[in-house]
Specification:
With 560 residues, the protein is an alpha+beta fold. Helices cover 42% and strands 22% of the residues. It starts with a strand and ends with a strand.
Length: 560
């Protein structure tokens, strides 16, 4: 039995029902056991759901009592009669002692029925259990959540397709209704999920989480409907014709998750940092740490908040927006000293700016890249100058506007002065920090780890396909993001543990686990099933060894 929510077209009313699946012949149909009530808003719906869960428990207990009473009145004659009758519906499950052992089965007796992937549940499942075991009192909810998360690791897709993938590739059979039911159970547990994830990261570095990388992205819907969570805003996916939500994510310097927050789609990027910190302070303790992020998140208010909490920060500096006197010093070679940054020769300069340290660096490789990027833009401009019927359309793009000018006759031309001015900054990069004790080179190296959070977003958005989002109810949206976050956390911790002994990329780890399979054979006469494990690679063996797991290659009886 489970709860089903039925909506009414063009009405906020929702009907909460208790239903169960019953077999009628060869088909399975849903039978309404009891109508719980009608909800007119989310609060009433949640109350009816809670009441429905209690009713399911009461009905289950009552049925068990009635079944026990009926069994007392069964006579031996009726039992024999029932035994001799042909049983309808699902065949009773065989006991393992009644099945012919694999050693007595010949190849002529069996035929391969299917192949299932076992490596993902063996290894990633062990990692998931290490982080989220006993999250629910119900084993049924936990196992369903576990299956959905592990499937998403290798087959990121909609919940409907997840159901199909679980059945086809893992022999895990769940109904779509049960998956949605599980998501409704995940929603109230989101704070616990965040806490457990943070604690798992923290326990690996017991001294402190000393570096937090912070960034924001947007996740779009295949929808134009606006509500309290979905809204229009600046899209980093360039999907301005669809609604979105804003996701803030934080990791440590090893890419292990620290926390996340989900905001409405029109939330300003600069406002997410303060909101995220305030939320995280309620959930878990963050000691004295250093926040590293892009300049867009660090407004004066955010910087003031970090300093009031005794947090350190390293942020990118907009060098070209600084006062002219300071820019002149930054461009003056006499303020720079030679050094080595990440095995690359560089020049470093240090300045004071509004009571903070402004550290700039110059690298020849960066200068070459800046020159090539600018030349690419100039080449495009040169191709279209004189061919555009409306010259002003050329300068709508900021990347182009920096290098062109429009004279009185509305003629667009390249501005050599602007080009020369831009060239002065080739190879230069700056950071602003409130850290006073560390050497400039060390601070620049710490800021360089920002690529880790950017790569984490690529993993979430591309490898795990967190978007587009197909849910519309706010609770389901939050649950979807939480499931994706658990998937990301499982993957990151799995990668970290494996990389302690061997350096393997995320894609290689998943590929190795995908290739750890077993064949399921069915006996032609008895219809009994047998599992025959396939061989696996040396890399996969090393991964199993990392988790202190052994994989038997012996054939066994298969009882799914």
């Amino acid at each position: 039995m489970y709860l089903r929510i039925k909506t009414t077209p063009n009405s906020p009313r929702k009907s909460v029902q208790i239903v169960e699946s019953v077999r009628v012949g060869d088909k399975v149909k849903q039978k309404i056991v009891r109508h719980v009530g009608i909800a007119n808003n989310d609060w009433e719906e949640q109350k009816l759901k809670d009441y429905g869960d209690e009713l399911i428990a009461q009905i289950t207990v009552q049925r068990e009592k009635e079944a026990a009473q009926q069994s007392l009145f069964h006579t031996l004659e009726s039992e024999i009669s029932m035994h001799n009758k042909k049983k309808l519906g699902r065949r009773s499950r065989k006991k393992i002692e009644d099945i012919l052992p694999p050693s007595q089965v010949t190849l002529d007796d069996i035929v391969e029925e299917k192949r299932i992937i076992e490596g993902v549940h063996d290894i990633a499942g062990a990692m998931f259990d290490d982080m989220y075991k006993n999250l629910f009192k119900s084993d049924r909810i936990y196992e369903l959540l576990r299956d959905v998360v592990l499937s998403r690791l290798v087959y990121p897709c909609s919940k409907r397709r997840t159901q199909e993938k679980l059945s086809k590739h893992f022999d895990k059979k769940h109904s779509l209704e049960m998956i949605y039911w599980m998501m409704d159970k995940v929603f109230p547990k989101i704070d616990q999920i965040k806490q457990r994830t943070f604690e798992k990261t923290r326990t690996l570095f017991p001294e402190k989480v000393d570096l937090i990388l912070f960034d924001v992205t947007t996740l779009y819907f295949e929808s134009v409907e606006v509500d309290e969570l979905r809204n229009y805003g600046y899209s980093k996916d360039h999907r301005f014709n669809t609604t979105q939500v804003v996701l803030a994510l934080a990791t440590n310097q090893n890419g292990l998750p620290v926390g996340y927050e989900l905001f409405e789609g029109n939330k300003a990027e600069v406002a997410t940092l303060a909101a995220a910190i305030q939320s995280w302070k309620k959930l878990f303790k963050i000691d004295s740490v250093c926040f590293i992020g892009d300049r867009a998140m660090f407004s004066k208010n955010n910087i003031a908040l970090l300093e009031s909490l005794d947090y350190q920060y390293i942020i990118a500096a907009k060098l070209k927006s600084l006062p002219d006197t300071l820019k002149a010093d930054i461009l003056d070679e006499k303020f720079y000293q030679p050094t080595v940054l990440n095995n690359e020769f560089a020049w470093i300069g240090e300045f004071e700016y509004q009571g903070q340290r402004l550290i700039t660096s110059y690298k020849s490789r960066r200068a070459i890249k800046d020159l090539k990027d600018r030349q690419r833009v100039l080449d495009k401009v040169k191709k279209v100058i004189g061919k555009q019927s409306n010259p002003k359309k050329l300068i709508t793009n900021q990347g182009v506007k920096k290098f062109v000018s429009v004279n009185d006759s509305a003629t667009v031309s390249l501005d050599e002065n602007k080009i020369d001015s831009a060239a002065q900054w080739d190879g230069l990069h700056g950071i602003i920090t409130n850290i006073r004790d560390d050497a400039p080179a060390s601070l620049i190296s710490r800021y360089a780890k920002l690529w880790i959070i950017e790569e984490s977003f690529r993993v979430n958005k591309h490898t795990l396909e967190m978007r587009p989002i197909y849910h519309w109810a706010p609770s389901r949206i939050h649950a979807h993001i939480a499931i994706c976050y658990m998937t990301f956390s499982t993957l990151r911790h799995l990668q970290y543990r494996v990389n302690l002994t061997q350096k393997i990329s995320i894609d290689t780890i998943l590929d190795e686990l995908m290739n750890v399979e077993a064949s399921i054979y069915i006996h032609k006469r008895t219809k009994d099933r047998y599992r025959v494990p396939g061989n696996y690679s040396n890399n996969a063996r090393k991964i199993y060894k990392t988790f202190r797991l052994e994989r038997s290659l012996d054939a066994t009886i298969y009882l799914p």
